[in-house]
Amino acid sequence: MRAWQFVGTHKPFERVDIEEPTAGPGKVVIDVKAAGLCHSDVGILEDEKWLSTMKELPVVPGHETAGVISEVGEGVTDWKVGDRVAVWPLAEIMGYMVNGAWEDRAEVSTDALVAIPDEVSFAQAAAATDAGMTSVGALSTAGVEAGMKVGVIGFGGLGQIGARVAKLRGADVYVAEVNESIWDRIREAGATKVAKSITEFADVELDVIIDYAGFGVTTADALKAVKSSGGGRVVQVGMGKLESTIDTYSLILGRKQLHGSMGGSKNDIEETMRYMASGDLKPTITEIDFEQIPDGIQQLMDGTSVGRLVAKVAD
């Protein structure tokens, strides 16, 4: 069957043919319909630090997965062939510790399965499993609730979901996005104000800022811009770069807080898909063909991708 493999840092993904998996005890095989692309997929190509998250190479990347169960293993009783499912990627660290979704069929533990509502497409479901899970999980880390002033950095694959769900929870949302061509879309999602830099909201007294970009300066800017009185909080999600130089003077004297947030729970995926099913959440998704995955990765590198990139693996 078809697959893309990560074979090492600073090396391109390789298109290969590998053996089809079979469903072991407590597992299922999914015919993959849609597989997401993420900035961390760029990161593994560029930074050796990612190797510590992997058991062995080569590995099939892809941690956003949606498809249809085609085989069930011994002891599986709660799921059946034909079920539409998405995959919670943190159950087995999919795409890192085990093969991910950039393949025609994937073996997955039943602990990772999440049912896809009828109203949600495979592309939406794939995006919900990481872009949705991670962005909504960060809202939980930040303690976002009605009446709060929330800053969001980046309106890409994650930020567009985080900003919209924060608004649906009743928060006032201020978005920093360098790409002015999507500002109208940001306002349509319910943002109170939009600007190029989060520092332009320094006088707003933001209760929390969630950095979905993580390009070094964005983290530093967030710590400067979040409120000092009452201990403003910055939640770091984006990993555009793995280092940042911050102003500890502002951090300490302002009694501010800096939290890391990685991934989220199955409940975060389910919440995301509920909003998708109701029509309240309509993230921008750009679908590409399976064979175009390297082109999609290049778009992420160049900053030209629109919304969340999802590869169509099968009809």
Write down the overall mean pLDDT: 95
Major pleated sheet: 7 strands, mixed
Specify the structural class.
alpha/beta
| CATH architecture assignment name of the largest domain | Alpha-Beta Complex
> Which fold name corresponds to the CATH topology of the largest domain?
Quinone Oxidoreductase, Chain A, domain 1
CATH class of the largest domain: Alpha Beta
Amount of helix? 25-40%
Low-confidence stretches: none
Strand content: 15-25%
**CATH homologous superfamily placement of the largest domain:** Medium-chain alcohol dehydrogenases, catalytic domain
Radius of gyration: 19 Å
Number of helices: 8
User: Which term fits the overall shape?
Assistant: globular
Task: Report the order of strands and helices.
Answer: EEEHEEEEHEHEHEEHEHEHEHE
Number of strands: 15
Distance between the termini: 15 Å
Give the number of domains. 2
How would you describe the overall organization of this protein?
The chain is of the alpha/beta class and 315 residues long. It folds into two domains: 2-115 and 284-312, Quinone Oxidoreductase, Chain A, domain 1; 135-260, Rossmann fold (3-Layer(aba) Sandwich), CATH 3.40.50.720. The chain contains eight helices and 15 strands. The chain has helices spanning 39-46, 122-142, 159-168, 183-188, 217-225, 248-253, 266-278, 293-302; strands at 2-5, 14-17, 27-36, 65-72, 84-87, 105-109, 113-115, 149-153, 172-176, 193-195, 208-211, 233-236, 257-260, 285-289, 308-312. The strands form three sheets. Strands 3, 4, 5, 6, 7, 14 and 15 form a seven-stranded mixed beta sheet that branches. The chain has a six-stranded parallel beta sheet with strand order 10-9-8-11-12-13, sandwiched between helices. β8 (149-153), α3 (159-168) and β9 (172-176) form a beta-alpha-beta unit. α2 packs across α3 and α2 (122-142) crosses α7. The chain is globular. The two termini are 15 Å apart. The mean pLDDT is 95. Residues 8-311 form the Enoyl reductase (ER) domain. It comes from Agrococcus carbonis. Its EC number is 1.1.1.1.
